[in-house]
């Protein structure tokens, strides 16, 4: 009887597509600058501003006014950043953080909980939202400019697969 080795299809391997770290401040000016400094400390990248899509008179927000900052990270730096951000959550994520299409989202209440970040009275304490997109090789067909195509349902990352990926690669406990 011969031993058969089951080879994993390399196109079924799951990887991190991108990480989006967002701080919604709700006001412009000095608050935006503080948010930018925090995201630069956490990610090491230059954040970009997000502007209000419409005016909300009750909150004093005008259309086009910068109200948030965001950083998108791709490539090899993603694994280290995820590990760093998960420490602030004590490596525990609720099952509701995982969506059926392979995305994982969680919040961090205070940025000083992230290792290597110290409290600065000039900045204060800010919270942030983190979104992680998991994907498989071949997802480029849905993003490319020319001859865009859909990714089939069987090739999408399921909720269970994304939970398993986080358990194996980052030691996360799913509550």
Description:
- The chain has 175 residues and is of the alpha+beta class.
- The protein is 23% helix and 23% strand.
- It has four helices and seven strands; from the N terminus they run E-H-E-E-H-E-E-E-H-H-E.
- It has helices at residues 30-43, 77-87, 140-143, 159-170, and strands at 15-24, 48-51, 66-73, 92-93, 103-108, 128-135, 173-174.
- A five-stranded antiparallel β-sheet has the order 2-3-1-6-5, with helices on one face.
- 23% of the residues are buried.
Give the arrangement of secondary structure elements.
Layout (H helix, E strand, L loop, with lengths): L14 E10 L5 H14 L4 E4 L14 E8 L3 H11 L4 E2 L9 E6 L19 E8 L4 H4 L15 H12 L2 E2 L1
Parallel strand pairs: 4-7
Antiparallel strand pairs: 1-3, 1-6, 2-3, 5-6
Strand order of the largest sheet: 2-3-1-6-5
Q: Rounded to an integer, what's the Rg over CA atoms? A: 19 Å
Task: Report the helical percentage.
Answer: 10-25%
Question: Major sheet: size, sense and barrel closure?
Answer: 5 strands, antiparallel
Listing every helix as H and every strand as E from the N terminus to the C terminus, the arrangement reads EHEEHEEEHHE
Count the E strands: 7
Q: Give the structural class.
A: alpha+beta
Shape: globular
User: Which regions are unreliable across 5 or more consecutive residues at pLDDT < 50?
Assistant: none
Spatial gap, N to C terminus:
43 Å
Q: How much strand? A: 15-25%
Q: Figure out the total of helices.
A: 4
Mean pLDDT: 88
Quick tags:
175 residues, globular, single chain, 5-stranded antiparallel beta sheet, alpha+beta, two-stranded parallel sheet
């Amino acid at each position: 009887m011969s031993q058969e080795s089951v080879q994993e299809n390399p196109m079924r391997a799951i990887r991190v597509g991108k990480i989006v770290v967002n701080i919604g401040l709700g006001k412009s000016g000095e608050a935006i600058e503080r948010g930018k400094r925090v995201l630069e400390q956490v990610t090491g990248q230059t954040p970009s501003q997000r502007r209000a899509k419409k005016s909300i008179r009750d909150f004093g927000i005008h259309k086009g006014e910068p109200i948030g900052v965001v950083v998108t990270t791709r490539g090899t730096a993603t694994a280290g950043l995820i590990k760093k951000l998960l420490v602030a959550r004590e490596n525990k994520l609720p099952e509701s953080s995982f969506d059926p299409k392979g995305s994982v989202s969680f919040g961090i209440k205070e940025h000083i909980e992230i290792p290597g970040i110290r409290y600065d009275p000039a900045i204060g304490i800010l919270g942030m939202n983190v979104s992680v997109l998991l994907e498989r090789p071949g997802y480029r067909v849905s993003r490319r400019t020319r001859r865009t195509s859909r990714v089939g349902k069987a090739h999408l990352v399921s909720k269970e697969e994304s939970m398993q990926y986080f358990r194996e690669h980052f030691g996360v406990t799913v509550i």
